[in-house]
Write a structure and sequence with these properties.
The protein has about 400 residues and is an alpha+beta fold. It is about 20% helix and about 20% strand. The N terminus is likely disordered.
Length: about 400
């Protein structure tokens, strides 16, 4: 792979993609002008790939998501090879998110697979691709010294039953769209473009309710999210290459729905601290009314129980710690005991997990009333670039890290 100046490690797009790939990019500009599905029909909704932050973080949740982690194919990967992979993925994302086909000839050397045209008659459906790097990516590419301290493994939490096969990974991709067919085919495209460089480690599939509000417990989900513009400001000690970046915590949380469904309605509401019908706090008002944690009944008992989820998760209970939560439901059939294998794919975006997710989860693990109906089965932390500083035209994901 190219590296004409080891001191600067500047890689040209021609060298990274090869002559054929560069020609494909040139042709792709014209091809991208025609949305998938043609026929003179109105263009499908599209979310811009370029912008002040990566799409898929502040974007309103789509109906479907595929979270996927990849491992680089070698214990030690040449930095140029990693750059070439991320350039291919970035190029594909630029085209797919605007409804254009992936340029021909973008496949890596040695790949025998080609685009089948499965997306040719499909609209973008608000497709977004969000990319992140796991802690091991830095070791694999010889960038250990650049790995931020905040990208440390999460501490152990009581009652976690983590499956190693569903955690970690060198690279993270979040694929969101309003069409499950689109998310499935986009993941296949990324796998094809990663041939010989990275393999799929795990994938999880999620969905939302038609109105995007309720989870499988029947609760209105994500009500008290902070203002993302303020909550996702980079930490003061973030390295220069992560300026404007963020971190995401991914958790697969299985809900014990058969048990939950047998509880009296008032018991379920007390466990959460909100009404089931509209998501309003038990202290009154509507869904967006702030929770009054100091409110008490005439007998002096707090309206919001001491172990209610909203009390323990509130910023006021965690020294102001906040996260931007953007989660989906999942239902993967039934387990051997007949219980539903279903729950929440929880993603939390923040400037530093050590001051965001970790203290909140530690507090929840010490008595959250919902915890007895939940099982945390997977966990991973990834660096996610460009929140709010996004990918500019002519650049690729993580370029400022790989080409300092």
């Amino acid at each position: 792979m190219p590296e004409t100046d080891p001191g600067h490690r500047r890689f040209s797009r021609r060298a990274l993609l090869g002559t054929g790939g560069l020609a494909a990019l040139a042709a792709g500009g014209a091809a991208g002008a025609a949305a998938l599905g043609g026929g003179g029909e109105a263009a499908a909704p599209a979310v811009p790939f370029h912008g002040p932050q990566q799409a898929g973080i502040l974007t309103p949740r789509q109906n479907h998501v595929r979270l996927a982690a990849f491992d680089l194919g070698r214990a030690r990967t040449d930095r140029g090879r990693a750059a070439a992979l991320l350039l291919r993925w970035t190029t594909a994302a630029e085209h797919l998110t605007r409804g254009a086909p992936v340029p021909a000839g973008l496949e890596p050397p040695g790949s025998r697979a080609a685009d089948t045209g499965a997306l040719a008659d499909t609209r973008p459906a608000r497709l977004t691709l969000t990319f992140g790097l796991g802690a091991t990516f830095f070791d694999r590419t010889g960038l250990t010294a650049a790995r931020p301290e905040a990208l440390a493994p999460l501490p152990a939490f009581p009652d976690d039953r983590l499956d190693p096969a569903r955690g970690d990974g060198d690279l993270l991709v979040q694929i969101g769209a309003d069409d499950a067919f689109v998310t499935a085919q986009v993941l296949r495209t990324l796998q094809r473009l990663a041939h010989g460089e990275a393999t799929l480690r795990w994938t999880m599939t999620g969905f939302t309710a038609a109105d995007g509000r309720r989870n499988l417990m029947g609760q209105v989900d994500g009500t008290n999210n902070p203002d993302p513009a303020r909550a996702l400001v980079s930490a003061p000690d973030a390295p220069p290459w992560l300026a404007g970046g963020s971190y995401v915590v991914v958790r697969r949380i299985r809900m014990l729905l058969d048990h939950w469904d047998t509880l009296p309605p008032d018991h379920r509401e007390q466990a959460l601290g909100r009404r089931a019908c509209d998501g309003a706090p038990l202290t009154g008002g509507g869904e967006r009314t702030p929770v009054d944690l100091a409110a008490s009944r005439p007998d002096g008992v707090p309206v919001i129980a001491s172990n209610a989820h909203v009390r323990l998760a509130a910023p006021a209970s965690n020294n102001g710690a906040t996260m931007v939560r953007r989660s989906w439901s999942y239902h993967d059939g039934h387990r051997a005991d007949g219980a539903p294998d279903a729950g929440l794919l929880f993603t939390a975006w923040q400037p530093d997990p050590r001051t965001g997710f970790v203290p909140v989860q530690q507090r929840l693990s010490r008595g959250d009333a919902l915890a007895r109906y939940l099982v945390h089965e997977a966990s991973a932390v990834f660096v996610v670039f460009a929140v709010p500083g996004g990918i500019r035209p002519g650049t690729y994901v993580a370029q400022s890290l790989l080409e300092p």
